[in-house]
């Protein structure tokens, strides 16, 4: 069941959209123009606590590195995802549109997508990625 196995992606998308909305409110009341850039990826990770004096929880792996690259090569005000993540999000009812192929440090050329954040998840999955 694709929706169940990727439901955490929907939670992350809703969180990122909520962060953007909250930032809009902060900007309005503080006369600032802060903008958010988000990168998402999904897959296996390794997690653990490191440090004897100041223990910290951290996650590692290719999934984390690619998500970081999606953020750093992204565009302000947008959520950039990998092609595989775009397909998974589509199965949850989100719409993504192609950004095209971009050079990603350490990964070469990757086909990336922007998540359509004008509308949150609505109805059944769309038939197109765009």
UniProtKB/TrEMBL annotation:
It comes from Homo sapiens (Human). CDD domains: CHD. It comes from the Eukaryota. This is adenylate cyclase. PROSITE patterns: GUANYLATE_CYCLASE_1, GUANYLATE_CYCLASE_2. The keyword Nucleotide-binding applies. Belongs to the adenylyl cyclase class-4/guanylyl cyclase family. Its EC number is 4.6.1.1. Keywords: ATP-binding, cAMP biosynthesis, Lyase, Magnesium, Membrane, Metal-binding, Nucleotide-binding, Transmembrane, Transmembrane helix. It is a multi-pass membrane protein. It is found in: Membrane. Pfam families: Guanylate_cyc (PF00211). The keyword Lyase applies. PANTHER family: ADENYLATE CYCLASE TYPE 1 (PTHR45627), ADENYLATE CYCLASE TYPE 4 (PTHR45627:SF10). It catalyses: ATP = 3',5'-cyclic AMP + diphosphate. It is an enzyme of class 4 (lyase). GO terms for molecular function: adenylate cyclase activity; ATP binding; metal ion binding. GO terms for biological process: cAMP biosynthetic process; intracellular signal transduction. Its cofactor is Mg(2+); Mn(2+). GO terms for cellular component: membrane. Residues 1-71 form the Guanylate cyclase domain.
